[in-house]
Amino acid sequence: MDHTNGLNSNETTPDNRLGLPSGPLPNDQSLLIPDVVMHPPPRLTPPVGHPSLVHQNEVSLHQQFQGNYYLHHQQPNPHNQGFPVSSQGAQYPPMMLQNGNPSILMNTFNPMANYTPAYQQADNCNSEFNNSRIVENQATCELPSMEVFTGNYDFHVNVARTLDDSKRSAWEFSEVLNKLFVMEGRNVPMQFKVKNINPSMYVRAVGIYCDPDSSNKPVLRCPNHLRVDEPLNIDYKFIDHVIRCNNQQPGSEYVTVLYAMMCRSSCISGINRRGLAIVFTLEIEGRVLGRQVIAVRVCASPHRDRMLEERRLSKGEASALLVKNEGPSVPNGVSADSPSDPIGPLDQMYFVPVNNCDDYVVLARLALDLVKKDYPEGPVKEIEIQRYQSILNTMGENQH
Amino acid sequence: MDHTNGLNSNETTPDNRLGLPSGPLPNDQSLLIPDVVMHPPPRLTPPVGHPSLVHQNEVSLHQQFQGNYYLHHQQPNPHNQGFPVSSQGAQYPPMMLQNGNPSILMNTFNPMANYTPAYQQADNCNSEFNNSRIVENQATCELPSMEVFTGNYDFHVNVARTLDDSKRSAWEFSEVLNKLFVMEGRNVPMQFKVKNINPSMYVRAVGIYCDPDSSNKPVLRCPNHLRVDEPLNIDYKFIDHVIRCNNQQPGSEYVTVLYAMMCRSSCISGINRRGLAIVFTLEIEGRVLGRQVIAVRVCASPHRDRMLEERRLSKGEASALLVKNEGPSVPNGVSADSPSDPIGPLDQMYFVPVNNCDDYVVLARLALDLVKKDYPEGPVKEIEIQRYQSILNTMGENQH
DNA sequence: AAACATGTTT
DNA sequence: AAACATGTTT
Ligand SMILES: [Zn+2]
Ligand SMILES: [Zn+2]
Fold first, then answer.
1. In chain A, which ranges are E strands?
2. Is residue B225 a known part of a binding site?
3. Which PANTHER family match (chains A, B) (predicted)?
């Protein structure tokens, strides 16, 4: 099925109709809210995972968050969909270590991905964050990938267990369905694990419809919930985003981020009973390092509906259900690597930590040479070459 | 229960929030759409009904619509509710005979009614119609009366029977419940019978919640249905009105008007499952001549829901249902008169047809004298005196 | 028309 | 938690 015809659609977003603030680039609504102090990784140990182009130390997850670092919280980033005034309810709270060493970016970039040049709306960005790094990318494109891969940073997400063991708890997570059942507007703690965390990493959360007939459409709030007089819409810029990131909590084992779903799965003229998933991507500078997907149902009775769906699954009726309305129940199976490529795995980024300026320059020059030698001619090669030349210029390579 | 505190509420209407057109008098959205040629009454015969102040001929209903006359169609008239920017989803298609004889208005006016001076928004009015006659009145006040009375003009309304005898017809009418069950947006023909029709008469339709806790609130469309990109909202001025009058059909027995309900009874943030009724008032110059009330449920399955409610009624569960959600099931019982008063029945208007200018003036002078003699001192008396003096001025009473 | 889906009331 | 209310799918 070809969904690229969405490029020619005349879709408009309700925020325009309702006179919500829209800048010259309405698709980009990136936001950074004030930082929260967290802990940096104390030491780096050799990495595990993809060997190519990687020279890096590893830090165990137990040690990962023991220092002080900032966890930046970035708000929904709509994607560039190639047609006017259409946005996506996406959220990506970036995790940033502020005291990281300088690193050389050894990047493999998927030339086939729907990559959109970075642009930002200044008024959506917190000045403390170098938001030029947060870009539209394949995670926010018209048809975001739902392929799960943990990547070299062993990216995992886990829904925290609710403390309410009654049958009226605000959320329940079905392991067998890999599906979150949650009431509208209730915070759910999501726990992210990342090995070898880097200061520039962040997690992006993008809502996507499971049904291929809808998965090229952005997940936006319904007209009812868009009412500007809704208490929860006051003093909030992204009232059209279904996924809202409410804050984040530091921890020693993982980073916990609170997400709330601001529409029901049944919301009329909104999600409209379509199956929904959240795609979490671990990213750096717009490159996807890992991806996790969780199906979500936002409903009034999470317990009842979870029981019904699990019963249906066990009765073998799941296939009909999942194919039609819910989409594939987001297999928990994980591939450690992203799709392979002549020049190495795509869509991933690796970092070579160095603790002095001279070595940094030496490694950057080597990386530049490798790109010039190994990359096929094309825009990707040019971008990568520019990257290293920019680094070398900055580091005073111009001096001699 | 005292509902007058609604006067102090800070309610606002969604049309303001959504930036819909709102004139300096947002409560008044009177509209007249182009006239439809119908038939005038061929002759006048003596009247039946309330004797006081009535000198008039009667025309049988069979003869009533045999000539040519215009049936004006007027759109929802919001009421003045005594607080800012609140409007009511009201509709009143006026029936006007264009070739009627001049008449003296012998009016009894209820001094206790919440009468609001007439004002109009020029751009809402069809120029062919003297819209200064269509006013805010007690039918559009904060707490419109739901008392049924046929009045001296024997005002009756009847829901046309659907031609679709399947169980999926667009509407069904329950006689026992006096309740219309209708799908959203589907036209329902309402048949109005009026004895002794006068060219200035019209029918107003106002939606009202049956539950006293809500009956002082206007019946407005929900945010979902207010979307300006809804096809049915294009080129329509009153998208916030639940009751839409789609046209009217001449007939020899009665006037048929098509009404469509533009929200479901279940619409979130709108009717929100509250019981609803339509109050039809036969009026002239803002005076109420008769009133009929029909309960309405706008739903996806009119047949099923009618059966369920009728079954509930027969099981004696109706009382609980009706009191709580549906309100009194709008008794079909009818009183021919409106509440009595020392100077005669209130809220009704009678017409003395005369076929020459001189007699018209004589009768008007007599009416003036009667008002001066019998009416208690007060604003009502002043208004009535002004009315007759205005008539006499117009008829050249000034000449001598 | 019956079964189902899904929010609300009891 | 079960029953009910009410839109949708079969
Ligand atoms: Zn919603
Ligand atoms: Zn509605």
1. 31-39, 68-75, 90-91, 95-96, 103-107, 156-159, 171-174, 179-182, 188-193, 201-209, 243-249, 255-261, 276-284, 287-298, 349-353
2. yes
3. CELLULAR TUMOR ANTIGEN P53 (PTHR11447), P53 PROTEIN LONG FORM VARIANT 1 (PTHR11447:SF16)
Q: How far is B273 from chain A (nearest CA, A)?
A: 15
Collapse the DSSP code of A193 into the 3-class scheme (helix H, G, I; strand E, B; otherwise coil) and give the result.
strand
Contact B203, B273 (CB under 8 A): no
Instruction: Name which of B304, B208, B224 is nearest B264 in CA terms.
Output: B224
Q: How far is the CA of B169 from the C1' of C1 (A)?
A: 13
Chain A residues in contact with B18 by the CB 8 A cut-off are 18
Closest by CA position to B243, among listed B92, B140, B135:
B92
Question: Can you give the pLDDT at residue A250?
Answer: 64
Q: Using N-to-C axis directions, what is the helix angle for A379-394 and A357-374, rounded to 10°?
A: 160
Return the ligand number nearest the Cα of B232.
2
From the CB of residue A237, how many other CB atoms can be counted at a distance below 10 Å? 16
Query: Is the ipTM of this structure higher than 0.85?
Result: no
Alpha-carbon gap, residue A331 to A292, rounded angstroms: 10
CB of B14 within 8 Å of any CB in chain A? yes
3-state secondary structure chain B: CCCHHHHHCCCCCHHHHCCCCCCCCCCCCCEEEEEEEEECCCCCECCCCCCCCCCCCECCHHHHCCCEEEEEEEECCCCCCCCCCCCCCEECCEEECCCCCCEEEEECCCCCCCCCCCCCCHHHCCCCCCHHHCCCCHHHCCCCCCCCECCCCCCEEEECCCCCCCCCCCEEEECCCCEEEECCCCEEEEEEECCCCCCCEEEEEEEEECCCCCCCCCCECCCCCCCCCCHHHCCCCCCCECEEEEEEECCCCCEEEEEEECCCCCCCCCCCCCCEEEEEEEEECCEEEEEEEEEEEECCCHHHHHHHHHHHHHCCCHHHHHHHHHCCCCCCCCECCCCCCCCCCCCCEEEEECCCHHHHHHHHHHHHHHHHHHCCCCHHHHHHHHHHHHHHHHCCHHHC
Residues A223 and A270 sit within 8 Å (Cβ to Cβ):
yes
Residue B222 at interface with chain A, using a CB cutoff of 8 Å:
yes
* Token pair belonging to B174: 């329950």
Query: Which residue in B has a C-alpha nearest to residue A228's C-alpha?
Result: B17
Instruction: Identify the nearest ligand to the CA of B222 by its number.
Output: 2
Q: Which residues contact A90 (CB under 8 A, 6 or more apart)?
A: A76, A77, A78, A79, A139, A140, A204, A205, A206, A207, A241, A243
Using the Cβ of A7 and the Cβ atoms of chain B, whether some distance falls under 8 Å is answered with: no
Contact A33, A129 (CB under 8 A): no
Question: B228 vs A12: CB contact, 8 Å cut-off?
Answer: no
User: Cβ contact (<8 Å) for A17 and B228?
Assistant: yes
Which of B19, B226, B269 comes nearest A19 by C-beta? B19
B178 in Cβ contact with B295 (< 8 Å): yes
Task: Give A66: exposed, middle or buried? Use CB within 10 Å, 0-12, 13-18, 19+.
Answer: middle
Question: Chain A: residue nearest B229 by CA?
Answer: A17
- Distance of alpha carbon A132 from the chain centroid: 16
Give residue A334 CA to ligand 1 midpoint distance, Å. Answer: 32
Structure tokens of A249?
A: 């909590």
B223 and chain A: CB distance < 8 Å anywhere?
yes
A170/D2 CA-to-C1' distance in Å: 19
**B155-186 pLDDT tens trace:** 999 999 998 888 899 999 999 999 999 999 99
How far from the centroid of its chain's Cα atoms is residue B296's Cα?
Answer: 16
Grouping H, G, I as helix, E, B as strand and the rest as coil, residue A388 is: helix
* Per-residue confidence band for B257, with pLDDT thresholds at 50, 70 and 90: very high
pTM beyond 0.90:
no
Q: Is the pLDDT of residue B201 over 60?
A: yes
